[in-house]
Design brief:
By secondary structure, the protein is α/β, with parallel strands linked by helices. It has one domain: Dihydropteroate synthase-like (TIM Barrel, Alpha-Beta Barrel), CATH 3.20.20. The protein has eleven helices and eight strands. Helix 2 links the parallel strand 2 and strand 3. The two termini are 30 Å apart. The structure holds pterin-6-yl-methyl-monophosphate. The site of pterin-6-yl-methyl-monophosphate (PMM) has 17 residues, from strand 1 and strand 5.
């Protein structure tokens, strides 16, 4: 497979297939809406479509693996059959395996294998790239765990430990993509501290993904009046700065604004080399 976006920061466009994200016209309409949305994001310049069926927002309740699969698998199958590069945003090993069967090329697991003890073995078997995020617990409890003495040292240390554990279990380290997990067990200040020292994460040597899009720390920065459009502008600025620091990918809802921002970064880099 030629990797889309190779050599520059990739854009993962978010497609959340949850009851509140698309039409309420039933399952079939929801699948159609999700596919149409994904195709729009591709038109806007997404390299990868990240399909998720379970909200991981603070306070969100969990859905069963069956319900998650009912939501995401038809969307993944259809997109993959059209040649789209798909990642599946899941903490469930069974969903990961079934998504891979239907053509998903990446597994994006916000828990880094901690939510499902079968995930590591499944990933060894699937041998696909695996986004392993910094995670301290499920949505219901993560805000209680947002305490740090030295944010960057602790997040980095916990990620590195997680990688060591996975490699001990037999996971190929070359398959791992790391994510500091903005907004997950982090207060606003912690997210900004991580972004300010992204270099240290990039220097770990694995590809790095960041997901800042529309998160609460962006909303807090802009104030209560700021709608999604303004949050997306701020997100695009974060994307540009993160790309400048050499991240492998950014996960965003509004691909068009981030595409423009990353085109500027690429032109800037080309200017340096010419
Ligand atoms: N954030 C969310 C969901 N999945 N995956 C990765 N790798 N990194 C993230 O930061 C991340 C993620 C939550 O965002 P959403 O509910 O707005 O999609």
């Amino acid at each position: 497979m030629t990797e889309p976006g190779a050599g520059r920061t990739r854009i993962m466009g978010v497609v959340n297939v949850t009851p509140d994200s698309f039409s309420d016209g039933g399952q079939h309409a929801r699948v159609d809406d999700a596919i149409a949305h994904a195709l729009r994001l591709l038109g806007d310049g997404a390299d990868i479509i990240d399909v998720g069926g379970e909200s991981t927002r603070p306070g969100a309740t969990r859905v069963s693996a069956e319900e998650e699969q009912r939501r995401v698998l038809p969307v993944i199958a259809e997109l993959a059959s059209r040649g789209v590069t798909v990642s599946v945003d899941t903490m469930n090993a069974d969903t990961a395996a079934r998504a891979a069967e239907r053509g998903a090329s990446y597994i994006n697991d916000v828990s880094g294998g901690l939510a499902d003890e079968r995930m590591a073995a499944t990933m060894i078997e699937l041998d696909l790239p695996w986004v392993v995020m910094h995670w301290r617990g499920h949505s219901a409890t993560m805000n209680d765990r947002a305490h740090y003495q030295n944010t960057v040292a602790e997040v980095k240390g916990e990620l590195v430990n997680r990688v060591s554990q996975l490699v001990e279990q037999g996971v190929n380290p070359a398959r791992l993509i790391l994510d500091p997990g903005l907004g997950f067990a982090k207060q606003s200040v912690h997210n900004w501290q991580i972004l300010a020292r992204l270099d240290e994460f990039v220097r770990l040597g694995s590809p790095i993904v960041i997901g800042a899009s529309r998160k609460r720390f962006i909303a807090t920065l802009l104030g209560p009046e700021a709608d999604y459009a303004r949050r997306d502008e701020a997100t695009a600025t974060v994307s540009a700065l993160a790309a400048r620091h050499g991240v492998w990918g950014v996960r965003v809802h509004d691909v068009a604004k981030t595409r423009t921002a990353l085109d500027v970064v690429e032109a800037w880099k080309a200017g340096e080399q010419s």
